[in-house]
Design brief:
Largest sheet: 6 strands, antiparallel
Number of strands: 6
Strand content: 25-35%
Distance between the termini: 63 Å
Structural class: alpha+beta
């Protein structure tokens, strides 16, 4: 009994080649527009947070409707800054807050208590 080898016809070969090219194109699209975009967004967000610098007493909290309803904290020196939703309830009117340039943390002082809110943890 003679063994027969399997051969692709030209039509089958074209189909396999087209499927391979399509899979490769989809992979490139996903990598370029989804994975890289998420990484860029993370890096940009982290850089913006690190550039912020403020220190003062919280005198008000509110939402800026004209700024996509951003949660804002207002300080006694007329500085305002936006916070992630997870931090909104943790910062109270009357707290003292410090955010140093180059860092991702906001230090909050309330009475004799001190706690740290790390923006990088939220981004991750």
């Amino acid at each position: 009994m003679k063994k027969e080898s399997f051969k692709f016809s030209n039509k089958q070969l074209k189909i396999v080649l087209n499927v391979g090219v399509a899979i490769f194109a989809i992979f490139l699209f996903v990598k370029s527009f989804i994975i890289d975009t998420d990484r860029k967004r993370y890096n940009t967000g982290l850089k913006n947070i690190q550039e912020e610098n403020f220190q003062g007493l919280v005198i008000d909290k509110g939402f800026e409707k004209y700024n996509h309803n951003a949660a804002m904290i207002y300080l006694n020196d007329e500085t305002k800054f936006s916070v992630f939703g997870q931090f909104w309830s943790k910062i109270k009117i009357g707290d003292s807050v410090v955010k140093k340039r180059g860092e991702t943390i906001i230090t909050v002082y309330r009475n004799k208590e001190k706690f740290i809110l790390d923006n990088e943890e939220i981004l991750n």
